[in-house]
Structures are given as C-alpha cells and as structure tokens.
Amino acid sequence: MGQFTFEIHSLPEQQAIAEVLGALDDKIAANRKLVTTSLTLAEAVHDLALSDEQRPLGDFMEFAYGKSLPATRRIPGEVPVVGSGGVTGSHDEALVNRPGIVVGRKGSMGTVRWMDEPFFPIDTTFYVTNKTGIPDQFWYFSLKQARFEGLNSDSAVPGLNREAALEQLTRTPSESGIKRFEDFALPLFELATANRRESQTLSQLRDTLLPALMDGTIRVKDAERLTEEAV
C-alpha cells in the first residue's frame, strides 16, 4: 500500500481554522435571514398594491415552454439550468437572457421560482413572458399566491395545464400600488439578490479554504485576512 502523509494541526490552529470557517458560515446564515426578510416585506408591498378587480393571469402574461437539455449536452458555465425542482446544474448559454420567473410544469408542478440572472429553464418548466409594463417581480408574488393545485393536464404524465393555469383569476394592481411597488419592493428585491450572490461567493470561498487549510496549502493568517475582506 502507498504511504500517505497527513498534517496534524495543533489545538490552537484547529480552533483558528474553526473560527475562520465559522465566520463565513455566520455571514451566510445572516444573509439568508436578510433575503427572507427582504422578500417577505416586498410581498407585503405587493399585497397592498392589489385592487378588488380580478382578471385572468393570461391577460398579463404567457407561459412559454422550457427546452430539453440533457446532462450529456450541457457545457459547464455560468448559466444556471433550472427544472421544476430547482437548479440542476449549469450551462454556457442561456435560453432566457434576463432575470425572470419559472413555473414547475412536471414533477414539482406549480412551484414558482424567481431567477435573478439569465437562466436555462428545461422542459419540466414554463418560463413567464410579461405582457405588461408592470415589473416581473410583481407577477412573481401573484403567481406564488395562485392556486394551481388540481390543474393537471390530461396526458399520461401529470403536469400543469397551461391553459387552465392562465385562466386562473388574479387581483389586479392599482396604478398607485404599482408605483409604490416600484419605489419600495424593487429595492428590497435588489437587496435580496445582492445578499444571495454574496452568499454564493462566500460559500465558494469556504469550500476553497477548507481543504487548503487542512493540508497546509494556505496559512491560517492568510485565510483570516481573506475572510475579513469577504465579510
């Protein structure tokens, strides 16, 4: 058998490593709470913008079909590939070249997700095309509150019936409500996006530092400096 060499860190070094990684985990957790709070407040602003008038969702948007993209055809890149259950990988080319809304078509039927960057929705999803000048973020909350249960298609594989979904009634916003949403909710969305992206960067830093600290590739002091700069 081959021989393996392991570096055994002293107890103070182990504690220092734990503190470095713990600081990153704490910041990621704080960001997660801030994202949740920001979106909760933004949804409250959305709800205040609604009038008593109801119209079909299809008056305001279309559901476009995602596109098949098997894992064997994906080229790893910066674009998230999203299915009805969430992000399933990456690709080097977007199908939708803007932030937007994804609705689960098969599998996790009726789930609604906001994508804050260009993305590739696969064929288990719909993506939303906005027919109005009202921000997509507003319709994200309207769709989250829609009742898509029981709107299965008639095919052998259960899935969300597009026509039935777009016939669902939704409360329309008032003009003053739209303005209030743009003034108050959109900045909250931007805050949530910024914190989500920062958490992704911090997670990558943590995952890079852990093995480097354990095998001695990077010194604890250098890791502490990188962490201080990041958080």
What does the model show?
The chain is of the alpha+beta class. The protein has two domains: 11-44 and 183-230; 53-173, Adenine-n6-DNA-methyltransferase TaqI, Chain A, domain 2 (Alpha-Beta Complex), CATH 3.90.220.20. The chain has five helices and nine strands, in the order H-E-E-E-E-E-E-E-E-H-H-E-H-H. It has a four-stranded antiparallel β-sheet with strand order 2-8-5-6, with helices on one face. Strand 5 (100-104) and strand 6 form a beta hairpin. Helix 1 (11-48) runs antiparallel to helix 4 (175-214) and helix 1 runs parallel beside helix 5 (220-230). The longest helix is centred in the C-terminal third of the chain and has 40 residues, at 175-214.
Q: Tell the overall outline.
A: globular
Q: pLDDT average, as an integer?
A: 91
Estimate the helix proportion, in percent: 40-55%
Count the helices. How many? 5
CA-based gyration radius: 22 Å
CATH class of the largest domain: Alpha Beta
Please count the beta strands (DSSP E, at least 2 residues each): 9
Report low-confidence residues grouped into runs of 5 or more. Answer: none
Series of secondary-structure elements, N-terminal to C-terminal: HEEEEEEEEHHEHH
Count of individual domains: 2
CATH architecture of the largest domain: Alpha-Beta Complex
Strand content: 15-25%
Strand order of the largest sheet: 2-8-5-6
- CATH superfamily annotation of the largest domain: DNA methylase specificity domains
CATH topology-level name of the largest domain: Adenine-n6-DNA-methyltransferase TaqI, Chain A, domain 2
Structural classification: alpha+beta
Biggest sheet character:
4 strands, antiparallel
Distance between the termini: 44 Å
